[in-house]
What we know:
Elements: E1 2-7, H1 14-27, E2 32-36, H2 44-48, E3 51-65, H3 75-79, E4 85-88, E5 91-94, H4 104-108, E6 114-129, E7 132-139, H5 147-155, E8 164-171, H6 175-181, E9 186-191, H7 195-211, E10 215-222, H8 227-236, E11 240-245, H9 248-255, H10 260-263, H11 265-281
One iron/sulfur cluster (SF4) is lined by residues 61, 63, 79-80, 82, 84-85, 99-105.
Amino acid sequence: MKLAVLSGKGGTGKTTVAVNLALSLAEKGEKVLFLDTDVEEPNAGLYMKPVLEESLPVTIAQPEIDQGNCDYCGECANFCQFNALAVAEGVVLTFPELCHGCGGCVLVCPKEAIQEGKREIGVIEKGWADSIKFWQGRLNIGEPFAVPVTRYLKNGLADVQEDIVIIDAPAGVSCPVIEAVRDSDFALLVTEPTPFGRHDLELALKMVDHLGIPSGVVINRAGKNNDLISELCQERNVPILLEIEFSKLLASLGSIGIPFSRVLPQWQERFWGIYQSIKEGCPCAS
Length: 286
Ligand code: SF4
Ligand code: SF4
């Protein structure tokens, strides 16, 4: 089962939920693969403290111009939809940070003056956090394209043997989130009972509906304003699977990098309960 943990809004505790869920399932004997797809700021490792054993570069295609063969016709620059090429008198300029690596300019050049080079934009790191297989993507600083790193990270999923893959998605509802979440069997949306939390949860629910992924909600920092979320969940017919009450103890543990389910075993049972509920309602469960 591929279970994506996401949140429309940043700072809701998405990674906290993903990590505690993974640890609780592993404690119960499930074989877990944890994927940190928040490639612009992967931080699940701060809690899980994995030993990383492998680092694989992620590259995208990038044009390399052979100025000697070029007649400066301008066809490559006309073709490029991203303004990553410009032809001036006697020179072809490339702007690597704008290039999406589509390779189209190589094909349209009538003089075969463009070769397909490579540019490294990030890495995939693989290792173990105790019995949990742990993979994360990391986008190089200053690189704008998170999606290829996430796609490369998820490419290896076809061959994994684990019972459950937990995907810690980036916050928001933009392209990197869609890439992280698509093809998941279930989406666990983490929110908080505030107007912003409700607003961004609604966006995230629309996104997973559009992708055809069944979903459930976790209310973090739950308290007297829970109605803000429960009304929306009722309207959209989405179950609330867990409420994590606002607690100084839980916040303190998080602030020093300790997942609370590690030291408060009752939480392992609650996260295990979520997993059972999802399995019961999820057609992918075997
Ligand atoms: S399409 Fe080829 S020949 Fe024309 S300007 Fe670009 S690199 Fe030069
Ligand atoms: S590879 Fe695609 S995006 Fe990059 S410069 Fe060529 S046409 Fe533009």
